[in-house]
């Protein structure tokens, strides 16, 4: 009696639901303005699914996948394997090519089948309904949501082809573990492309979206295996596979090869993410607008718009090609860690390839974690004597035309510097007289450097330094003789100093090096690339003389710990007051690099590393990366 009553109730409910769908269909056909209402309120013409973006090294190898909560590798319809199309149509919507968005008979059939089974064997929603539910609607089991789902589906079917709908559907379904779409699922569970999967593997993946938690292959592979058999049977029933294929796939053992998210080289990738924002700002005009903004509110609004633009590009699935040289990057990170064993002391460096003028390595500090404060380009410190070649020696040589053997009076002298005179001293208070430029730079005599800038003039000397666009060198520094010894109010970053020193590798021409070489969309079209403006800072003749003097620093000056096997090696050391920081900026024929070592700045002020600096770790790091 109970069974008969149940069947009667099922029949009544089915009939009622069919009648409801018939009435809905009639209303849809009668309301002539429905499409117009959708046009005004719903962007059906702009169905969009995010896709992973990628950061690639100099050889085009993947170093970082970029996505938030949705791991999706979008595939166009012609890239989708037929097996996936067949498996999902057979299991989810076998009348897909016949209905107009919803399937009245299919809903009734699913209702009866599920009533007869202890499990949820069939779903009542078409592929189109599932698609609109995933993109537009919630998954709430309510009458209002179901009605909206049907109406949306009708409109989607009017505006898109069946192939378009399948493409969107197979890229939107959720396979668990942040994987959306067949390609991301294939890469995650099997570490290979969907095009390379066997029939058994396709059926295995097809089993998951029905209930990603219940059929999770990581925790419940046996359940997924059971449903794989169900999927294969459906494909056989629909004549998508042969009996022989069915039997072989049923017997095939599934072995997972889970592929974790690719995310290497956090120091460099963090920088690239920031550089990408700068590149978009430059190319899209945000930089100009922000510079001209007169209020903080206006700047905040523009920055929010810029961030939204950057995120939209990353969601579209772009490829950011970079100049990274992985082996050099690994060596740089390793050297910083090994040469600075003291846990309280930090170090960073950047390396630019002189031939390509591209940033090929950058470290953010020992034990660096992605998106943290990156000392390679965000740490601005007083540069000490490493600024002398750029601010004192090269401008003086350019203005006077003299060479390395020319002499300057390096005796102790006081200079007007605000309300009180400033009287610079040399290291260990050593007093000198007349000295050649070559010896003055090699021995890093402070009194000689100040004498040079005094002769050239602060304004003239800074007219050369301004061409490097040091971000935090301001007007107050340009009025201060102490700046020639690196006594800036804030300072420079390792990346800025490395960029400036590349001028010595390029005959006196400066062009700011970047890490990004080009940005491409999913079709391989170039969206962005940096312009490469060149500025002649000083003449080739001056540059040749400076290279001689920088080489002398290494052979018989403060850089004598440099031991690099290369046709040319030159550079300059830098030490700030009380040994709070030590620098080495230098170059070979192939690379230019700047290395900064010091304790992180705290509220208690900078702290000395004098004892540690005696082993010249900055020069040893330069040796490591250049050799």
In short:
Helix content is 44%, strand content 12%. The protein is an alpha+beta fold and 627 residues long. About 1% of the residues have low confidence.
Determine the CATH topology of the domain at 2-251. Penicillin binding protein transpeptidase fold
Distance between the termini: 89 Å
State the share of residues found in helices, binned by percent. Answer: 40-55%
The residue ranges in which pLDDT falls below 50 over 5 or more consecutive positions are 118-122
The general outline is elongated
- State the total count of DSSP E strands: 18
Beta-strand content? 5-15%
Overall pLDDT metric: 91
Structural class: alpha+beta
The main sheet orders its strands as: 2-1-5-13-14
The CATH superfamily title of the domain at 2-251 = Biosynthetic peptidoglycan transglycosylase-like
Identify the CATH class of the domain at 2-251.
Mainly Alpha
Radius of gyration: 34 Å
Subcellular location: Cell membrane
Keywords: Carboxypeptidase, Cell membrane, Cell shape, Cell wall biogenesis/degradation, Glycosyltransferase, Hydrolase, Membrane, Multifunctional enzyme, Peptidoglycan synthesis, Protease, Transferase
Pfam families: Transgly (PF00912), Transpeptidase (PF00905)
Protein name: Penicillin-binding protein 1A
